[in-house]
Structure formats: structure tokens, C-alpha cells
Amino acid sequence: MSLRIDPQAAVQRGYAESLDANDPLRSFKAEFVVKDEHLCYLDGNSLGRLPKKTIEQVNHFLENEWATELVDGWSHWIDQAQPAGDLLARTALGAGPGQTLVCDTTSVNFYQLCLAAITARPGRKTVIIDSANFPTDRYILAGIAQAHGLKLITLDTDGSGGPGAVKIQSEHELVDPAELEKLMTEDVALVTLQAINYRSGCRQPIKAINALAKKFGALVVWDCSHAAGSIELDFEKNNVELAVGCTYKYGNSGPGSPAWLFVAKHIQTELRTPIQGWFAQDKQFEMGAFFEPAENIRRFQIASPSIIGIRGVEVAFEMIGRAGIAEIAKKAALGTDLMIALYEAWLKPLGFGLGTPEDSSKRGGHIILTHPEAKLIAFALRKLKNVIPDYREPNAIRLAISPLPTSYVEVYDGFERLRDLVASGDYKSVDLSGNRVT
Asked: What pTM value is reported for the model?
């Protein structure tokens, strides 16, 4: 392993305490609401903690904007999707202004950009996704393919198959550009992958895949939901043209907070979205008879933005900006290094496996541990040990360090409790019946 921590010292709680003492981000935890100091919350990659300032800002909006301004508030609310997008792009994406909107849901944005990309490549009939991709993305692309008579290729990176499945050599769900190139032709309109895989935590080679797609004239849509706010995405350096993501994971913007979409300036006028909403209309308030889209990023907005939701996004990404995405990425790497060291020392002897790359440059802010009884163990951690992980099919416990609100001691304590739970066999006493959300 190439861990940047001392594996032998890592099994001592004092080592985690020393990491916290020297953590340049340690003060940020105080900016979040923490109701239970003994809870080990290792699921910030599913839903981030609540910033205290979000409560202030949402209350301020309710009392001093909506309540007092009423409909006149739209004079300054109407364009909020773009400045919020510019903030998110600057702090988390490594991209300049005028290319990002905070709007709608990840699913809607994904549909919009995928179909826009396919339409921009007329005559091409092949689209590519991978079997380890998030279910919504796979289902949406399958629906698009069916509706438009396209050939869907699913890169089988995890053995689960899918529509048009083609087995490729893959470790930890990584899509090797050399393997992808075997399937690339001038008939491929679109490739879509995750920047960080939702299950394994694998980081895809973004720049190399973008270069490969460009060689064949295809477009790439990246889903960055498990990446934004945890790693340096460097959109400009990596030549990203199209991307989507959510804001409620490492973004800490709240459940159901508005998502974002990114379209590089140089291809904005090349694409036409399938959902032609009135916010995309160039002369919006003329209410014209024909759709004439704006010549900028607003052509990708459908309808009224969620102003309450945007307030949460602004708070959270302002915080990310103050912390610095480079420091956040360093802590995500070090925190997952600590997890892997504790796995090697404590959990591997108990029958666990590691489903995430050991090299921190090839992963994001979470890891997965595999175990034949993973679902039961994950549930028991919540019920018996005050540790919140999540479970992912078929046999994985997913554990994350959210760099702003999560301490190294929180990681250490969570893994120690996991070890004790399994070593004692106490997890076998819980009942899984009636539990739907994992």
C-alpha cells in the first residue's frame, strides 16, 4: 500500500487525535449542526450535515424577502441559477463563469444534456454507459436509447450486466481508456460515466476518456454527484465539456437541494435541449410564439429556480470556497487512507474485503468494504453502535469522510465500533424486516 499515514500508529486513537490537531480544516465542524457528539456520521457522501448558517439564510429569505417583497422579489430572484452556478464552478469544479447553472434535479439535468449531446451528433446511433453507473443514469439512458432507436452499450465493469452488456477488463469498476477504445467507432454519439463511482469510490481517468471521445467525435457527459466537493475536478484542465451533479452530498446543501449542470462555453450554442422551457427563451418576458433559445448558459434552464434551495447551495459552497478544494481533497485522501489502514489491521482478519483502490489518486472521499453479511452489519451499526454508514448491493458497506464536518477521530471511532460489532457477533441480533432505505 502507498498510504500517507503510519499504518502501525493508525490503530491508536491518539494518532487520529494528532491528525485532528494538525488539520487545517478542523474549525469547520463548528459551523455545522451536530446534535449528538457521540455519533459517528460516515455517510456524508449520501447526505451532508446541516450548516448553521443555512438556517439563518433560509429564515432570512422567508422573513425578509418572500414575506415582505412578495412577487417583487422575482426582480432579483429570477437569475439566481447562474450566479449560484458560478460560485459552485469556481469553488468546486475548477471552471470559469457562465458555464454552470444550479437548477432542477440531477436526473432532469442528466436527461437534458444526454439527449442534447445525442442530437448534436446526427446520424450516430450508439451510446455507451457502464454497468456500475448510478441506477438513475442507466435507466434514463436506456429509456432514451429505446425511444430514439439507439444502440446502447453497457460496459460490464462489475459483472452485473445490463442492456447491450459487453464485458471489459476492469478493477474496482475503473473504465480503462484502452478497453473503451475497443468499442469506440464513429457511430458513437455519447459516452457517460461517473467522475467518482457511487459504489466503489473509483476515480475515472477523466482527461484521458475525454481525449478518447474527442478522437472519435463523441461527446461525454460526466456525473459528478459523488465527486463535487470532495476532489479537485479541474474541469478546465481536464477538458470537461458536459457534466451534472447534486449538491446534497459533499455539497452539504440539504435533502433535495437543487442540482447543477455544466456546459462549456464553446459548445453551448451547438446544443439544443429537449425540454424547451421558458427560462431558456432569449426574450423571456415577450412570451413569444416560437422558441428562440438564449445564446448563453441560460438556454439550458427549464423553469423557475428553487430560491430557498439555492440559499442552501450558496452557504455551502461559500464554505467550500473558504476551505479551498485543494485542502478538502487532501483531507479526503488522508481520511480514506486512515480507513484503509484500519481495515487492514482490524477488519480484513474478520472476513472483510476492500472494494476501493488503495491509491488515493484513484478514489474519492469514500470507500467500500465487502462482507457476506454486509447488509445486516450496516443496519446493526446504526442500531447498536451509533455509527451511520450505508449499504450498497450486493455486499458492500460504504463509509465516507466528508472533509468539512467529519473529524479523523470520528473515522477512528466508527471503525473501532465496526470491529467490535463484528468480532463479538452482536450484529446477528438485529432484525432487518421493514427496513427499506439503506
From this structure: 0.96
